[in-house]
Amino acid sequence: MLSVSDVDVRYGRARVLHGVSLEVPTGSLVCLMGRNGVGKTTLLKTTMGLLRPAAGRVELEGEDITGLPTHQRVRRGMAFVPQGHVSFPQLTVWENLQVTLEATSHRQASAVEEALAVFPTLRPLFKRPAGFLSGGQRQQLAIARALITRPRLLLLDEPTEGVQPSVIDEIELAVRRLHRQAGLTVLLVEQYLDLALRLADSFVVLDAGRVAHAGPVAELHDESVRRLLSV
Amino acid sequence: MAALANQLPIGLSIAAVLLLIALGLTFTFGQMGVVNMAHGEFIMVGAYTAYLLQGAVGGQSLLVALPVAFAVAGLLGLLLEWSLIRRFYGRPLDTLLLTWGVSLVLQQLARDVFGAPNVQVTAPAWLVGGVDVLGVRLPHNRVFITALAALCVLGVGLYLAKLPQGRRMRAVVQNRELAACSGIATGRVDRSTFLLGSGLAGVAGVALTLVGPVGPGLGTFYIVDAFLVVVAGGLGRLRGAVLAALALGFLNGYLEFWTDASLAKVLVFVAVIAFLQIRPQGMVALRGRSLG
């Protein structure tokens, strides 16, 4: 589904990613791991077109999308939930969902209903500005917004970070269902090892802007891999 | 007391003019962060559009001029955004110099085409004269400008609150990256924001032909006031712009009455600076947990 090859990314003169390659096969759930500041978010943003790589290619189902603007990647079936439960703070919950629906190519209102079926707690909050929701509620809104685009590939950047435990369970359940039942392909950035073990098929560990290890999820128990993740 | 009451409509009509000239700037400067020095020249373009149409259409040209000026100034703004400004987002000093340069070019262009002396737009017959309300004399043209300002604010408010295009615009302003991730073509939204902001400047230009002569320097005369309103109201806040225009309008009206026109302008300027020392975010600030 997604193939990233030999990607270099720089912020000014600082090089953040060095020749990173990554495969996300159709129907898989790949977990991207690593300590803080190793380039996980940078890799997701590059995949989504929010950052331009200095070198390398990004392909979606065989098509070279390296130079494609972000909104056209969304039209091709990619969705991204950024880190930190981001929303449009002055738009109401309903407007947050509606503005996304209006930007899709399918424009089917049923997509909103499907997203609300995953997170029913959002419905009573419709008239509230998103900026007034709790972190967990905003994260559910963020995932719901991504689902409205009817993605085939979902990129999630630390969806459980700074979210209350009860909501973490709901988000885990939602991701599991979307992956197992709806067949959604997922690339997940997650620091929480237990969650990665429960959800992922395979994993990739970044260290200092390079791929340090990649393999099936069982290898997460290896001592050498654990050392890459310990702080 | 009667004199004080007499100043009320004058203050209101000054406020209406301020609001009209600042409304477009709340989009290009307030929402998009472009220190748009060419805004004044889009006002001038609107005014000259009214002047040209008066020759071509005659009698009711003013009503024709409003939509035409919106289109002409709007398309010019769109062209400016597409050709130059979009390459300079996030660089306020560069856009300041850039738009200032554009403003000088447009002024010279007007001088070359229409000549340096001012020209006059004759108001239609139904705008000449006035009406007495409770002993206060209201000139027709002032009533018209006030109604036009109210109509523009109402239209813009509805556009932002109810229409999909307005929703998209607010989304892009609040979080550009997230808007792109939601599938919104942010570049296209930027262009339509500029079209709207510049078009409103054109409408303001038509209105200004009712209260004074039209010249190549028309925009420079109003640009500072427009920025004052936007900054005092709170960047990009429609409600803030309305409040600031009303406050500055009445302040200006009464100070002019007690002192004289130029001293009033100075005092208003001092008042705005003092106000911004106390409340740098302007009258209406953003609320909510994250400003994202």
Detail the topology: elements first, then pairings.
The complex is a heterodimer of chains A (231) and B (292).
Chain A: E1 2-11, E2 14-24, E3 29-33, H1 40-48, E4 55-60, E5 63-64, H2 70-75, E6 78-81, H3 93-103, H4 110-118, H5 135-148, E7 153-157, H6 165-180, E8 185-189, H7 193-199, E9 202-207, E10 210-216, H8 223-229
Parallel strand pairs in A: 3-8, 3-9, 6-7, 7-8
Antiparallel strand pairs in A: 1-2, 1-4, 4-5, 9-10
Helix pairs in contact in A: 3-5, 4-5
Chain B: H1 2-31, H2 39-56, H3 61-83, H4 92-114, E1 130-133, E2 136-139, H5 140-162, H6 164-174, H7 176-181, H8 186-208, H9 218-233, H10 238-258, H11 261-278
Antiparallel strand pairs in B: 1-2
Describe the protein's architecture and organization.
Chain A: InterPro entries: AAA+_ATPase (IPR003593), ABC_transporter-like_ATP-bd (IPR003439), ABC_transptr_urea_ATP-bd_UrtE (IPR017780), BCAA_Transport_ATP-bd_LivF (IPR052156), P-loop_NTPase (IPR027417). Chain A: It holds the Pfam family ABC_tran. Chain A: This is ABC transporter ATP-binding protein. Chain A: GO terms for molecular function: ATP binding; ATP hydrolysis activity; branched-chain amino acid transmembrane transporter activity. Chain A: Residues 2-231 form the ABC transporter domain. Chain B: It comes from Saccharothrix coeruleofusca. The complex is a heterodimer of chains A (231) and B (292). Chain A is an alpha/beta fold. Helix content of chain A is 34%, strand content 26%. Chain A has a six-stranded mixed sheet, with helices on both faces. In chain A, a hairpin with a 2-residue loop joins strand 9 (202-207) and strand 10 (210-216). In chain A, helix 3 (93-103) runs parallel beside helix 5 and helix 4 (110-118) runs antiparallel to helix 5 (135-148). The longest helix of chain A has 16 residues, at 165-180. The radius of gyration of chain A is 17 Å and the shape is globular. The model of chain A has no long low-confidence stretch (mean pLDDT 91). Chain B is mostly helical. Chain B has one domain. Chain B is built from eleven helices and two strands. Chain B has helices at residues 2-31, 39-56, 61-83, 92-114, 140-162, 164-174, 176-181, 186-208, 218-233, 238-258, 261-278; strands at 130-133, 136-139. A two-stranded antiparallel ribbon of chain B has the order 1-2. In chain B, helix 5 (140-162) packs across helix 6 and helix 9 (218-233) packs across helix 10. The longest helix of chain B is centred in the N-terminal third of the chain and has 30 residues, at 2-31. Mean pLDDT of chain B is 89; it is low at 288-292.
